[in-house]
Amino acid sequence: MLYDVAVIGGGIAGYSAALCLKNKKANYLWLGVKGFGEKLRASEYVRNYPAFFGDGTAFSSALQAQKQLEEVVLTEGRADGVYAMGDHFVITVNKQSYSARSVILATGVETGGNLKGEREFLGRGVSYCAVCDGALYKGKDIAVVISAKEYEEEIEYLSKIANTVYVFPAYKNFETVLQNVVKIQAKPTEIKGKMRVEEVIAGEKAYPVSGVFFLRNATPPSALCGGLETEGAHVKTNRDGSTNLEGLFAAGDVTGTPYQFVKAAGEGLVAAFSAHAYALKQKRERA
Length: 287
Ligand SMILES: Cc1cc2nc3c(=O)[nH]c(=O)nc-3n(C[C@H](O)[C@H](O)[C@H](O)COP(=O)(O)OP(=O)(O)OC[C@H]3O[C@@H](n4cnc5c(N)ncnc54)[C@H](O)[C@@H]3O)c2cc1C
Fold this sequence. Notes:
It is built from 7 helices and 17 strands. By secondary structure, it is of the alpha/beta class. The protein folds into 2 domains: 2-110 and 218-286, 3-Layer(bba) Sandwich (FAD/NAD(P)-binding domain), CATH 3.50.50; 126-215, FAD/NAD(P)-binding domain (3-Layer(bba) Sandwich). The strands form 4 sheets. Strands 1, 2, 3, 4, 5, 6 and 17 form a 7-stranded mixed beta sheet that branches. A 5-stranded parallel beta sheet has the order 7-14-8-9-10, with helices on one face. Helix 1 packs across helix 7. The protein is globular and about 55 Å long. The model has no long low-confidence stretch (mean pLDDT 93). The protein binds flavin-adenine dinucleotide. Residues 8-14, 31-33, 37-40, 42-43, 46-49, 78-79, 106-108, 217-219, 224, 252-253, 259-262, 264 line the site of flavin-adenine dinucleotide.
């Protein structure tokens, strides 16, 4: 199936885009993790959102009720690659793939990301996808920097391939019974190496590893989509949400500050209009 628009990201920007596409009766795919984003759930009081006052849980419940009422469908999954194929995009999710004429990236930003050396060694030992790159580390020692409990099953997967897995959890209560998984309490500060990753520095120690996996809520956009123009952690966009890649749009925190729900929702809608118009124009031209 070739979708007109694929929206990646289950936060408010992605939801707003999907809602708008649903109302337009567009042929859309909304891909993400359910719950409207981890940040929303963490918000003790939602400020600056017209007509809503309350905490993140109440906001999430209101969104859930609307999602159900309007029948906005979420396909659960995390995209690990977006590939421009000329007249359409292919989005990979684990071993599955989806095709769409246009894509909206609404993947948010990871605050506290970008470890020293992370960008430098991307593709040379640094990875964001256990199932995509895990097999490269058969019998080797690797490090995993994990930001949330929900990714722990990826550690189990890696432990079956690698020799030793050093885990640097960014949250409390990480426990494991796996023999070759070693929890490191110290915060990683740098990835070092010559041509490829050779070690991770944490506290006073250096951990010799061949690869470092980052299991985070937000995948850096440039790692998701090759050739995408970024400014630091943000995708460079025009007012209509378009990027340097034709047919690829972005919305929400991933496009830059201010990091606010109302801006994310607004940009989601703008990107939905733009992406849908792009897809329809492309269809007409190729008919
Ligand atoms: C504690 C806290 C309190 C806040 N309080 C407020 C407030 O009071 N008022 C306000 O306006 N703003 C507030 N914010 C900011 C607000 O949360 C963000 O601006 C908003 O969540 C941005 O929405 P988004 O959809 O762009 O990104 P996010 O909410 O980050 O959603 C992005 C989603 O995409 C998913 N994703 C990432 N990569 C992929 C992938 N490869 N495939 C599939 N899915 C992916 C992520 O897991 C996430 O679910 C707060 C933020 C925090 C952290």
